[in-house]
Amino acid sequence: MAGKKVLLVYAHQEPKSFNGSMKQVAVEELSKQGCTVTVSDLYTMNFEPRATRNDVTGALSNPEVFKYGIEAYEAYKKKALTSDILEEQRKVQEADLVIFQFPLYWFSVPAILKGWMDRVLCQGFAFDVPGFYDSGFLKDKLALLSFTTGGTAEMYTKAGVNGDFRYFLWPLQISFGPEVSSEEQRKVMLASWVQRLKSIWKEEPIHCTPSWYFQG
Amino acid sequence: MAGKKVLLVYAHQEPKSFNGSMKQVAVEELSKQGCTVTVSDLYTMNFEPRATRNDVTGALSNPEVFKYGIEAYEAYKKKALTSDILEEQRKVQEADLVIFQFPLYWFSVPAILKGWMDRVLCQGFAFDVPGFYDSGFLKDKLALLSFTTGGTAEMYTKAGVNGDFRYFLWPLQISFGPEVSSEEQRKVMLASWVQRLKSIWKEEPIHCTPSWYFQG
């Protein structure tokens, strides 16, 4: 939808991968719609996944015992978070839609993307007490997890080797096994992704709830 | 149990934290039992969570299109994985019991620990085709997730703000909200942990299944 802002948080090492294609067609389709699309290409950015003392510039509020969550919250309020976190928070803040594009690693997001969540979505920014997720960063925004799997869809059924995928991830946009699919099937997956993006603005906003973050 | 080997994969930045105490009492109790305990202190090691081309020494099997899973599998077979991965695989291989000690971040493991899982538990080592998890790295080993939460136990019930924790993590050893507990309550948690460790060798071995890795 013209004028909308989209943040695409992308976690794949290889531009020629299927994830790379999913990212690319999303950028093209959304740009064609007149949206402004920003991509956070985590591997290219060499995004830091580790939550450490380095995330706080200046003095800690308790230098004796380091508590990451508390220090990040205090630093958020004092605008003393490190610049890479501030930059991502700014992108999220501006976005109407946040898309996460990644391959499934051990039934969850790759560590580099988990680090983005751990560090960017700090208290004060992503949630607060009281209210928790109600006042969260996704309020009045759309969000979409788009990911690929190594196995086929059959492997993620109740009888399959990996179990029913509904038990471990809210199924939003799954590209099952592009590596074990034909070129034709990959094209269908990309086309269905573009189709989804065409009507994305009509979808109901998703608030940041624990079930959304089931596999955070 | 005397003679047993234990690997403790520990992911907290602060030795004086409750996680630090859980780690410490585990080392003490298990050593007292005559076990050999190895600790992988991920933050102190500055463990690399990002799965990249750097994980493979020497030439890639496909330099044109980088596929992490395939390259890691090939490198595992050729003993060409980078040394930090090899070292962790050796520790896992030797261990009779693997304990993961961490604070819950966004309903899952911290990124640094997710990176340990993504990189150390590669195909060939942790699973293979066919057979998948049956031939896995935890076969005939014990494993235990021991983690702390920020919120209280009430917040992780069906009616609570975070939802029922059984939906997002197999409850193995949870230390609910040590930071919001009294010193007395923290002592009870540590004591119950030590108690659990006393009879740990009588527990049934857990195989590496998707449900175990629910929050991988």
Task: Describe the overall structure.
The structure is a homodimer of 216-residue chains. Chain A has 216 residues and is an alpha/beta fold. A 5-stranded parallel β-sheet of chain A has the order 2-1-3-4-5, sandwiched between helices. Chain A has 5 helices and 5 strands. The C terminus of chain A is likely disordered. The longest helix of chain A is centred in the last third of the chain and has 16 residues. Chain A has one domain: Flavodoxin domain (Rossmann fold, 3-Layer(aba) Sandwich), CATH 3.40.50. At the A-B interface, helix 4 of A face helix 4 of B.
Give a quick precis of the structure.
The structure is a homodimer of 216-residue chains. The first copy, chain A, has a single domain (5-214), classed as Flavodoxin domain (Rossmann fold).
CATH topology term of chain A: Rossmann fold
pLDDT average of chain A, as an integer?
82
State the CATH architecture of chain A: 3-Layer(aba) Sandwich
Question: Biggest protein-protein interface?
Answer: A-B, 48 and 48 residues
Quaternary class: homodimer
Fraction in beta strands of chain A: 5-15%
Q: Report how far apart the termini of chain A are.
A: 28 Å
Whole-number count of domains of chain A = 1
| CATH homologous superfamily title of chain A | Flavodoxin domain
Tell me the number of strands of chain A: 5
Largest sheet of chain A: 5 strands, parallel
Structural Rg of chain A? 18 Å
- Spatial sequence of strands, sheet with the most strands of chain A: 2-1-3-4-5
Helix/strand order of chain A:
EHEHHEHEEH
Please identify the structural class of chain A as seen in this structure. alpha/beta
Coarse shape of chain A: globular
In helices, the fraction of residues of chain A equals 25-40%
Q: CATH class of chain A, anyone? A: Alpha Beta
